[in-house]
Amino acid sequence: MKIPRPVSIRARYTVAAIVTSLIVLTVIGACLDAAARYKSVVDTFDSTKRVASQWSAAVRAGRVPRVIPAISPVDLIQVVDHAGRVVRASEQAAGAEPLSNVRPPADDRFEEVTACPAVIGCVMAMAIRVTPASDSLVVYAGVRTPAVLANGRLEAGIAGGVLVLTGLSAWVTWVLVGRTLCPVEAIRTRMSQITGSDLSLRVPVPPGGDEIALLAHTANQTLARLEEAVSQQRRFASDASHELRTPIAGLRLRLEEALLHPADVDPRASIQAALATVDRMEAIVDDLLVLARLRSGDTASGEPFDLAMLVAEVVEDLATGMPVRVHVTDRVFIRGSRVQVMRVLENLIANAQRHAESTVAVTVGEEGGLAVLEVTDDGGGISLRDRERVFQRFVRLEDGRRRDPDGTGLGLAISREIAESHGGSLRIEDSSRGARFVLRLDVVRVEAPVETAPLAS
Fold it and tell me: Domain HAMP, which positions (predicted)?
């Protein structure tokens, strides 16, 4: 029959402590029992040998009294002839049969004896042959078998001690493991209360810096990141639905008007207006897909490329707009997605061209181990309070709406996402006139840079 394994960690550790304690304490108890028995036997036979030796010498000298005086703790003393008769004895051994019928051989006068005479009971004695002669007397000196060896009380006491210590070990393990796991139970209870609709709860952090406290800190950090991600998704969904609702409503209105009043509506104009609305919706959806891919892709990988050369290509493609002046202070190479960085440059330069009064300036250089690209226009600029707002999704300032009514409001948000996914940053910094966007990316050192295209326009 298979014994079910305890599910609780507390129970498992307690069972392990009980088994370990029983094994260790049983071994220690057995060693103690053996040591105690050995010492008792040795001490007993040493004392009986000493007394037997004294009276053996007295027998040879002929100075043995009729009643032999006992020498504590040896109180059983007998002198027995070759016929097995007790010739002399101590008071406690008088009138009894010989302590033993063992007679040591002539070549080995000492012999340890354990016997159980009927009158006296079990004894431990030392038998000494007085002389080598065949009719030599034998002196027996002994004591009744010590209680520690006779009645098993030593084993019972050791077994009781093993059980008590095992129980104490189990209790201590149960209490300590329970206290250790108490914070885990609190964390589990709090985690069960956290739902997708409410991620604001945090698990309790126990005092100290042990593994459980580190686990609680990590769990709270994970919950904070999860809450931020869910909040961003909710804001993103809300903003997207809000931005798409207007073109969808306009498209529906035009189509319904064309159906309800066919005589009053120009079909060609209605179709053109509907296509323009569809184009705006398609642009919004495309930008949303780009943001989704940036969240999940590894955009920082790729081959190194020349940032200045990329700027030249973008400026050439946008040559029909506001004039762009390019100034390169250092050739810098970066690593990443060339297409995505190009999109950042297109967004920044096109945005500057929309807001500039006469010119746009692009500067490429290196500063502190970073590639630095600045896009500056001479337009009205961006107020300090709006410098972070413009990077939020679907946020468009009043001037931006006026200059580009069909914009999606996602260009700068996508640009910052791309910059951060490449390990860089995109900010608006102070400028004497207009707005100054600054892109910073890590520089990659290359041994043989390729030739670049002209950089001025």
Answer: 183-231
Half-sphere exposure (Cβ direction) of 165: Cα atoms closer than 13 Å: 16
Q: Which helix (H) or strand (E) holds 374?
A: strand 370-377
| Helices and strands (H and E) in the chain: how many | 9, 13
- Bridge pairing between strands 324-328 and 360-367: parallel
How many Cβ atoms are within 10 Å of 375's Cβ, its own excluded?
24
Question: pLDDT value at position 412?
Answer: 84
Q: How far is residue 262's CA from residue 256's CA, in Å, rounded to a whole number? A: 10
Query: 225 and 199 in contact (C-beta within 8 Å)?
Result: no
Cis peptide before 73 (omega within 30 of 0): yes
Treating both helix axes as pointing N-terminal to C-terminal, what angle do 307-317 and 338-355 enclose, rounded to 10 degrees? 50
Residue 132, both tokens = 């080598």
9-153 CATH: 3.30.450.20
Domain 211-296 part of CATH 1.10.287.130: yes
What is the CATH number that goes with domain 304-442?
3.30.565.10
Q: Is the pLDDT of residue 18 over 90?
A: yes
Q: Retrieve residue 34's tokens.
A: 């053996």
Task: Read off the amino acid at residue 193.
Answer: Q
